[in-house]
Amino acid sequence: MDSGRSGTIGLEGDQPPTDKDLAVHQSPSDQERRLRVGVVGIGWAGRQHLEAYANSADVEIVGLAGMEPDLLAELRDEYGIPHAVERWEDLIALDGLDAISVAVPTFLHAPITVAALERGLHVLSEKPIARNGDEGQLMVDAARKAGRVLDVAFNHRRRGDITALKRVLDDGELGRPYYAKASWLRRAGIPSLGSWFTNREMAGGGPLADIGVHVIDYALHLLGEPKVLSVSASTYSELGPQGRGGGGEYSAQAVGSAFEVEDFASAFMRLEGGATLLVEAGWAAYRDTDDLLDFRIYGTDGGAQLTRAGAPYSAVESLHVYTEKGDYEPEVGPSLGHQGVVDDFLAAIRAGEAEWGRHDGSLALGRARIIDACYASAARHREVEL
Prior knowledge:
- The protein is of the alpha/beta class.
- The protein has two domains: 19-155 and 340-359, 3-Layer(aba) Sandwich (Rossmann fold), CATH 3.40.50; 156-334 and 367-385, Dihydrodipicolinate Reductase, domain 2.
- Helix content is 33%, strand content 23%.
- The protein is built from 14 helices and 14 strands.
- Strand 12 and strand 13 form a beta hairpin.
- Helix 3 (44-54) crosses helix 12, helix 6 runs parallel beside helix 7 (133-146) and helix 7 runs antiparallel to helix 14 (362-380).
- It is globular, with a radius of gyration of 21 Å.
- The chain starts with 18 loop residues before the first helix and ends with a strand.
């Protein structure tokens, strides 16, 4: 986040005015056309949403909710937010609010989202949609009943390498894909031992639910959203219970919990049309120090390998395509991250009521159902059909 951004109105010297400065001098009719948004949560994800909204000229950030008083005050001043409150209930009660982002621990996604939708607000939630598919269904049902947008932040599909490979696949250069493997693996990346992330009731699961949901999302996105017919999964909890694998760079709010989730998961998925997908998600394993996010695909006319190594920052991306006509590296554009997520959310709202029904959270709910099936398969030691 740009720590130099100021929420004050006054300008010093010859500095050019920012979008926020210009917004103060717009006419009432201009202000009325701006979307009024709020953010619940001031951790890393919440700050990504804040920055993305601040970069959007047609948005006014009017509310922020968080439990850390000092950080809440700092962000309130930095972004010039008029209402900074501790309770999310007070934020969604603000008059004139159009939409909110929900960037809090997973067990709070459903209650906050449903309450906001019932007040007629559009909602952008962090991933996963909820702790399980049943909670996610409550959110989707609330969005449909309210006739409002519900979106979930899958920022990895907005990466430049993912976008480039998607073009290759959509153009048919690899023919018919029949096998793919996708992973997100860490060496010591448990988000703080004893935090809400390692509490099953609060998180709903370990790395499969936390980072594996990104892997499942971008893999199925790349493959053209085939239906998952069945899964055969295994989960492991070998390092976390021993106090190993905690990463200082992946901090999270401590709740004094025992380690109750997996620290590594693997799932084999049978897809409609005959293709298969293997997914791996691990917070902790004895491997290279840097995070690895990869995607390998084999098709009837070609294959591709996408690799993103290095974490949690300064990752190096590579993308190679292999065909009978020759191997090459596609041009990769910039990664949009949460800015792309927020821009798409705002565009869906701006598209109007006739389009809102197309954005009801159904895709994210499908991801949750797949993860539910993976956990059921691991518990039963057998394949589970969806």
